[in-house]
Amino acid sequence: MCFPDQHYDENLKKCINGPCPCYPEEYTYEDPCSCDMFYECKNGVKVLSMCEQGYHYNVTMRRCASPCSDICPKLFLRKPECCASTRGKPAPVCPATKYRVYLPHPSDSKWFYHCENSVLYCNRCPPGYRWNIDTDTCDDSCMCP
User: Which residues span the membrane (predicted)?
Assistant: First the structure.
């Protein structure tokens, strides 16, 4: 087992620093947490990419395509691995309201939460964007940590 930010190199038979290499070039992989994002191999590294608005990544075709349904089932799986670590800080608590409420992630501005019917959901901003607490949107000009 390797430390975080390392991967096991079969040729060297040891853990080395850096993300796991990605082959073949331009190959795409499903994002387990989002329907409209995917990973593609660029220069041997998996890079998070986003489909055009209104499209979802199609695992069978290995590209973005028009979705078969308007609902993304991944949004409701509540998988813990689909949210960045809070680094020991407490996750926010949803207020008791039927209205949608947005809350910042306590340690990583690439992520944010939204509450619906008092249920907390973790979401990720598109690549290159950060959660702007002033506007409650993902923003590409936000100088957030």
Answer: none
